[in-house]
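user: can you give me the structure for this one chain? tokens are fine.
assistant: on it. calling the predictor now.
[tool input]
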Amino acid sequence: MAQKCDMDLEREVMDQLKVAMKAKDHKRMEALRAIKSAILNAKTASERQEFDEETQLKILQRLVKQRLDSMQIYQGQNRMDLAEEEELQAKIIAEFLPKQLSDEEIEQKIEEIIAKTGASSMKDMGKVMGLASKEMAGKANNKTISVLVQKKLRSDL
């Protein structure tokens, strides 16, 4: 459900927020308000009124990552009630991201990029990561991409 312009994303968030308010779905309202707040904060910080799709994806990915990191911390502290809340919010925010690629799909794309760039060693990591990050923006976690690129480049030696 990736939007082309942030006004569409904002409008979609506002529409869903209204629906959540009418349904008195407080958990969903909290997640949607977090998205709205992050967009407004980004606009204030950059003084831009519209963002491209890549910037929107980064904002949403950051929000999801924050929730998942918090969830892990809460799980480590044996606070399952708070961990479940963070997980639910991450899922709601992730609804606005494109469908995530599986590890196998990511690996396949990385192999294609390595073949396209002629990468043969870890020295080519930056070149491969640059292309991979751009091609899979919003569809895969950069950390996962990085780990798989390293694995591929090391095994090709």
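assistant: here you go. Confidence is low (pLDDT under 50) at residues 1-6. The chain has two domains: 6-94, 103-155.
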